[in-house]
Automatic annotation (TrEMBL):
It is an enzyme of class 2 (transferase). This is Hexosyltransferase. Pathway: Protein modification. The keyword Transferase applies. GO terms for molecular function: N-acetyl-beta-D-glucosaminide beta-(1,3)-galactosyltransferase activity. Belongs to the glycosyltransferase 31 family. It is found in: Golgi apparatus membrane.
Length: 389
């Protein structure tokens, strides 16, 4: 009898627990749907109330681009069958440069004619699942505001989730973010490492169509920390003609070539390129360029076939345009090395002097963004970080 009673109670308890669980999930889902909306109050007012997701018929008008078919003849290349899957895929789709745009923000820069009023456009490569990174960037170095006259805008560049199961949810997420913040560009291609060049190419195309006048462009990853104040000061230093002169700076990489070890993330086999050297390029974690150089890259990229590594591809485009990339000591794509291990690598004093650093997790972005603006931050003498290599 007692046992029966316990059993019965346990059944009831189970039922209660189950309903609590279901309710909980329900609320979590509700909260998830409303999450980005709730943050709206933190949003700087966006001046462009009209917004629609247009079709982009013009994409088909890019020279040499037609609806994309798998190139099956790559499979007859010598050694093809033993290549890693992602490289096989790259070769099969290498010629595909046009993909439908799922989400757009055509008025990001106020329209092409007004876009020259944007001083710095932050174009951040972000995979669909990186919601937290986008959320923190919008509150820190990517905040859309005016720095004594210099308008800053941010746009995130995304493909579709590479995992089919997550894809539907991620599409919904980006759609919500796009409706709330109008800062998402999403194209219908798989957001993978070897498709980053595609993302770069499609961004340049978008820029040309929607925001050709933006004076300078920061192009980088969503895990870098940018000292927006310093970047603006630096760019202002080029004066009136700065936007229309060549500028392409970052962490310069020279005298390297394709890695031929098949287990490396950067493995590029002979089937992709037989050349054993890369032109000079800047690490893709973060690059600053002028609108002149962005256009020159776009002009070339229309005719240059895709290369799996996006920053190398930019180097190839620059070379074809007869331009060279440059280095800036304040842009560290491989992180900061401090002179002594007695000092804290996270010391805001270092970041006060830098333009950009790889790689931060979201909470660090927030702390650092506040710290570099702290008027009471006491940095004493300069720490000579630029000399550390
Ligand atoms: C398909 O691949 C072959 C072999 O690499 C290449 O010669 C050809 O140009 C490719 N076709 C297209 C449309 O890119
Ligand atoms: C790039 O995206 C296309 C379109 O989604 C996909 O078919 C292809 O497999 C992707 N390529 C790589 C190398 O991931
Ligand atoms: C890009 O191409 C257009 C049209 O061919 C040309 O007018 C323009 O000068 C080029 N710009 C650069 C920066 O190369």
């Amino acid at each position: 009898m007692r046992i029966k009673m316990r059993k019965h109670l346990m059944k009831v308890e189970g039922l209660i627990l189950l309903s609590v669980g279901v309710l909980g999930i329900f609320f979590i889902l509700l909260g998830y749907e409303n999450g980005p909306q709730l943050e709206k109050k933190h949003l700087k007012i966006i001046d462009f109330p009209t917004y629609s997701i247009p079709n982009l018929p013009h994409l088909s008008s890019i020279q040499g681009i037609s609806k994309c078919q798998v190139n099956t003849s790559v499979e007859s290349m010598i050694g093809f069958s033993s290549l890693p899957e992602h490289i096989k895929d790259f070769l099969r789709y290498r010629h595909c440069k046009a993909f439908p745009q799922i989400l757009n923000s055509p008025m990001k820069c106020g329209g092409p004619a007004e876009s020259h009023k944007v001083f710095l456009l932050l174009a951040v490569k972000s995979s669909p699942g990186n919601y937290e990174r986008r959320a923190i960037l919008r509150q820190t170095w990517g905040i859309e505001q005016t720095y004594s006259g210099a308008h800053v805008k941010i746009i995130f560049l995304s493909g579709t989730a590479s995992n089919n199961k997550a894809d539907k949810r991620m599409k919904k997420l980006l759609e919500i973010e796009s409706q709330t913040y109008r800062d998402i560009l999403q194209w219908d291609f798989k957001d993978t490492f070897f498709n980053l060049t595609l993302k770069q190419f499609l961004f340049h195309h978008w820029l040309e169509e929607n925001c050709p006048g933006a004076q300078f462009i920061f192009n980088g990853d969503d895990d870098v920390f940018v000292n927006t104040f310093n970047a603006i000061t630096y760019l202002r230093g080029f004066g009136q003609n700065g936007p229309d002169s060549h500028l392409f700076v970052g962490q310069l990489i020279a005298n390297v070539g394709p890695i031929r070890e098949s287990n490396s993330k950067y493995y590029v086999p002979e089937q992709v390129t037989t050349s054993n050297s890369y032109p000079m390029y800047c690490g893709g974690g973060g690059i600053l360029m002028s609108r002149f150089t962005a256009r020159a890259i776009y002009n070339q990229s229309i005719h240059i076939e895709l290369f799996p590594i996006d920053d190398v591809y930019l180097g190839i485009c620059l070379k074809r345009a007869g331009l060279v990339p440059a280095s800036h000591m304040g842009m560290r794509t491989v992180g900061v090395r401090v002179p002594s291990d007695k000092l804290d690598a996270f010391d805001p004093c270092y970041y006060r002097e830098l333009l950009m650093v790889h790689r931060f997790v979201p909470y660090e972005m927030l702390i650092m963004w506040k710290a570099i603006q702290d008027p009471h931050l006491n940095c004493g003498q300069r720490r000579g970080i630029y000399m550390v290599k």
